[in-house]
């Protein structure tokens, strides 16, 4: 963590001016039981009660057994493993922090803006395996899709908890008919215009040779692109719709290599990689539910 240097005032004297420098501000000390600036803190009880643990970095897996991350301050839960035991959080990081249902930054999510204290939503309360801290300079992923702060992630990668199968992308919703924008530039590899009336699936696939990844958008009403046409990051690509879905939203899926279609399966084996770090490196915090 970067330290902040403070400068003291200048004391004038007949012999000249003397400038004194204050000592460097102390960086947060992780796992000392005090929730300090620059840390993400998890609490054993709701309402930021009970024992807490203060963490200064992302944790892909809080762990189990003797090597687990434990609650360290005095109070209910002290000494117990944090994994599947946290009920509330306080985000004192400078960027959004997102708690994940599964290890490896996967499963359902609950995101907390900087400075916010909150109880975890029911799906994540006492069912949490790790968290990731975004980059303070990044845009929210849903803002990248809709260019509106009113948009929200409604289903995360592998975010189906109570239904069979898997979820290989990120679902984002704002409002029916809202403009949808490309989150990555590339070349169109497929356009399928479905219909709300017939519940036919629509698809827009855009391949980025730079990263050897294909971003696939489902359910939107795509503009009249042709295969082989170039699309720029931030360019409007369609409107929010429900083509092939029961409700309006945009499914955004990142697949390795040059692809033309999304991944669908009734089993629970994930084919696409967890997209968190990829989108963070592209300037998005792909969280925020």
Concise account of the structure shown:
This protein is mainly beta. Helices cover 4% and strands 34% of the residues. It contains two helices and 21 strands.
Description:
By secondary structure, this protein is mostly beta strands. The chain has 2 domains: 40-133, Crystallins (Gamma-B Crystallin, domain 1), CATH 2.60.20; 139-285, Distorted Sandwich (Glucose Permease (Domain IIA)), CATH 2.70.70.10. It contains 2 helices and 21 strands. The chain has a 7-stranded antiparallel β-sheet with strand order 11-12-20-16-15-14-18. β3 (40-45) and β4 form a beta hairpin. The two termini are 27 Å apart. Mean pLDDT is 88; it is low at 1-25.
CATH homologous superfamily name of the largest domain? Answer: Glucose Permease (Domain IIA)
Tell me what portion of residues adopts beta-strand conformation.
25-35%
Q: Which fold does the CATH topology of the largest domain refer to?
A: Glucose Permease (Domain IIA)
Uncertain ranges:
1-25
How many runs of DSSP E, i.e. beta strands? 21
Helical content (DSSP H or I, runs of 4+): under 10%
Strand order of the largest sheet: 11-12-20-16-15-14-18
SSE blueprint:
Elements: E1 7-13, E2 16-21, E3 40-45, E4 49-55, E5 88-91, E6 97-102, E7 106-112, E8 117-119, E9 130-133, E10 139-140, H1 141-146, E11 152-155, E12 170-173, E13 179-181, E14 186-192, E15 203-208, E16 213-218, E17 221-222, E18 230-231, E19 236-239, E20 250-256, H2 276-281, E21 284-285
Parallel strand pairs: 10-21
Antiparallel strand pairs: 1-2, 3-4, 3-5, 5-8, 6-7, 6-9, 11-12, 12-20, 13-19, 14-15, 14-18, 15-16, 16-20, 17-19
